[in-house]
């Protein structure tokens, strides 16, 4: 298998370390090179605009495509924006940035791969999502973690994008599949500002999540395409 990992945050870096340890072929595309790993396996992806994806996929012109693409890019806050607690805090620009970071990269990957795939291509596109973006979970009345409008709405959009892409690929590229995965809470920069609100026992080490995610992807069959799964492979509510 060969892997393309998007995002050099907590989980993306842990996946690269795990793949290196397993002796797999991998490339990490992100804003920062992962420390302690072969720099030749790193591609600087500073933005998530169409040009950045075009530049990344020139690497695959005339070369074999990866068999597994894992998109770990995710955005919950930045220096100027914290997750909203009330509707009055929703800022349309931040909502747009959240959609661009959380929902768009999967479709950018889908488009870049579709341009290079043939009807007999076999690959998995896996994007990390969040149960916080599940409408079913919200309807079940489970207590949320604050409104977090921009994050949760953009993860809901990501999930819909995965369903649509899986249905499109089933017709165009029947050997290729699309899933979204909720990894559970992890001790990564994404949770850094909220750590004192969380039970430390619930925060998983991303180094432990990475092998579970890779093992899960190794068990997928075509009937899983279009599903939203947890790390055990259990389907989650949309
Ligand atoms: N951690 C959790 O508890 C948790 C729970 C449920 C779901 N998830 C999901 O799991 C995935 C991995 O999260 P993580 O915990 O590894 O988070 P993380 O450490 O914050 O990593 C997120 C990555 O996304 C990149 N990114 C964000 N916005 C970007 C943009 N506009 N352009 C390019 N790159 C951008 C970040 O780059 P920089 O580092 O350069 O900013 C970072 O590499 C995310 O989709 C997250 O939503 C995480």
From TrEMBL:
Membrane spanning stretches: none
Domain of life, per lineage: Bacteria
Example of a GO cellular component annotation carried by this entry: cytoplasm
GO molecular function terms attached to this record: oxidoreductase activity
Cited PANTHER family: NAD(P)-BINDING ROSSMANN-FOLD SUPERFAMILY PROTEIN, SHORT-CHAIN DEHYDROGENASE/REDUCTASE
Protein name, entry field: Short-chain dehydrogenase
């Amino acid at each position: 298998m060969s892997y393309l990992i998007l995002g050099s945050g907590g989980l993306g870096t842990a996946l690269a370390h795990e793949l290196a340890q397993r002796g797999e072929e991998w490339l990490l595309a992100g804003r920062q090179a992962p420390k302690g790993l072969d720099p030749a396996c790193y591609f600087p992806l500073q933005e998530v605009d169409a040009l950045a994806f075009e530049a990344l996929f020139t690497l695959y012109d005339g070369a074999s495509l990866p068999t597994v693409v894992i998109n770990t890019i995710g955005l919950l806050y930045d220096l100027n924006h914290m997750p909203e607690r009330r509707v009055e805090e929703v800022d349309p620009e931040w909502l747009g940035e959240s959609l661009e970071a959380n929902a768009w990269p999967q479709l950018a990957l889908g488009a870049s791969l579709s341009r290079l795939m043939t009807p007999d291509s076999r690959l998995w596109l896996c994007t990390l999502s969040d149960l916080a973006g599940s409408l079913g979970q919200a309807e079940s009345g489970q207590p949320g973690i604050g409104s977090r409008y921009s994050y949760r709405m953009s993860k809901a959009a990501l999930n819909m994008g995965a369903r649509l892409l899986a249905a499109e690929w089933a017709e165009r590229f029947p050997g290729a599949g699309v899933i979204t995965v909720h990894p559970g809470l992890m001790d990564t920069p994404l949770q850094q500002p909220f750590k004192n609100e969380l039970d430390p026992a619930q925060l998983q080490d991303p180094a432990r999540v990475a092998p579970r995610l890779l093992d899960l992807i190794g068990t997928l069959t075509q009937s899983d395409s279009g599903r939203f799964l947890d790390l055990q492979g259990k389907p989650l509510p949309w």
